[in-house]
Amino acid sequence: MLIMPDLVMTVVRILGCLAGGWLPASFHEKLASEAVRGWQNFRDVIGPGLPRNHELYRQLSQKHAGALNDAFFHYQKRLFEAEGNFELAMSPDFETSTPPPDANSSWPDMNALPEYKKLRKIVERLSRRYLTRSGLAPESAMALNYSLFNWAAVHGPGEFHGPHTHVGEYHVGVFYAQAGDGAGKLRFGDPRGHSPPFGRSFFHSPRSGDLVFFPSWLSHMATVTAPQTNPTSGESPPLRVVFSFNIGPVQGPMPCHVWWSDPTGDMRFSRKLAFNPETLGL
Ligand SMILES: *[C@@H]1O[C@H](CO)[C@@H](O)[C@H](O)[C@H]1NC(C)=O
Ligand SMILES: *[C@@H]1O[C@H](CO)[C@@H](O)[C@H](O)[C@H]1NC(C)=O
Fold first, then answer.
1. Residue 109 CA: which ligand 1 atom is closest?
2. Of 128, 136, 144, 145, best ligand 2 pocket probe by most atoms within 8 Å of the beta carbon
3. Which Pfam families does the UniProt record give (predicted)?
4. Does 265 reside within a domain?
5. How many CA atoms lie within 13 Å of 129's alpha carbon, on the beta-carbon side?
6. Is residue 274 part of a domain?
7. Distance from the CA of 99 to the center of ligand 1, in angstroms?
C-alpha cells in the first residue's frame, strides 16, 4: 500500500468553516470569479485578437482538448515574467526573468485583487515551513531564495489534466478556488513505479479553500470533472478553478544536469521513538 504521510502531502485548510481555516469563503470566491473572468477574457478577446503568427495564437489554435488551458498557461507565464506589464508580456520577444515574490505577477485586475496578493503571501510564508517539516535542514530552507510562479486553470465539464511532475522545482502547490462535487480529484501516482505490488494511487477530494503542497517529483493529475449536465437537474456543474504554484530556484526550474545540487535532495526525515524491551518480550 502506498503510504502518503502528512509530511509528503500537506493540506492547509484556508476556508474558515473547514477545520483549521481562518479566512471567509469570500476569499476563494473572489479569486475564482477573477480567474474565470481573466480566462474568458483571454479566450474571447485577447486570444482571437492576436496576430496569426503570435506564439500564443498558435498554441490556442492547436487541435487538442487542452489547447485553451495550455495557451492560458503561457499567457500567464509571460505576465509573470513581465511583472504584470501586459504590453511587455504580449510583445513577441522579451527578456525573461523571474521577478521577486512581491512583484506583480498576473493580469492587472488579478494583481489589483487583495485576495490574490494574500494567497501568494500565504504560499510564500508556508513554503519554508513545508520544506522544513519534510526534512530539509532549517538553515537550508531559510537560505533558499525562491521564485513563486503561479497560474490559474479553469476546467469545464469533462476536462482533466494528465499525469506530470515538476522536477527541478523545490516543491509545488495547488489552491482550490472553486471545487464542487463534480470537480474531480487530485490523484497522486505511486513513486515506486507502475508494476505490482506498487502502482497504487492516492486520491485527494478537493474542497474550495484547500491548499495542497507536495514534492515536485510526485506524479499527479487532475482527474476528469463531471460531464456537461446533471441528468436529474439538467444543470451544468460549476467550473473547476485552481491556482497552481511552482516554488523553485530564482533562475527557473533546475535543468537535469544540475539536479545533483538540488537542496531538496538533502532532505532527511527521522523519527525518535523509545521502546520498552519488556513489552516486546526481549
Ligand atoms: C501592480 O498592479 C496594480 C494593479 O493592477 C497596479 O495598480 C500597480 O501600479 C502595479 N505595480 C507595478 C509596479 O506595476
Ligand atoms: C539569496 O540571495 C541573497 C541576496 O541576493 C544572496 O546573498 C544569497 O547568496 C542567495 N542565496 C542562495 C542560496 O542563492
1. 5
2. 145
3. 2OG-FeII_Oxy_5
4. no
5. 9
6. no
7. 14
Return d(Cα 201, Cα 252) in angstroms, integer. Answer: 29
Q: What is the CATH number of the domain that holds 123?
A: 2.60.120.620
| Terminal Cα distance for the chain, rounded | 29
Q: Which listed ligand is nearest to 140 at the C-alpha?
A: 2
31-53 residue pLDDT tens: 999 999 999 999 999 999 999 99
Contact residues for 81 (Cβ-Cβ < 8 A; gap 6+): 89, 94, 96, 97, 98, 99
Has residue 266 been placed in a domain?
no
Closest of 77, 112, 115, 109 to residue 96, by C-alpha? 77
Question: Which residues are paired to 202 by β-bridges?
Answer: 188
Question: Could you tell me which residues come within 8 angstroms of residue 104 by beta carbon, excluding any fewer than 6 positions away?
Answer: 83, 84, 85, 111
Structural domain span for residue 185: 2-227+239-256
What is the dihedral sign for C-alpha 210, 98, 82, 167? negative
pTM of the model: 0.89
In tens, the pLDDT along 127-154 reads: 999 999 999 999 999 999 889 999 999 9
How far is it, in rounded angstroms, from Cα 139 to Cα 42?
Answer: 42
Give the total number of structural domains in the chain.
1
Q: Are 263 and 170 in contact (CB under 8 A)?
A: yes
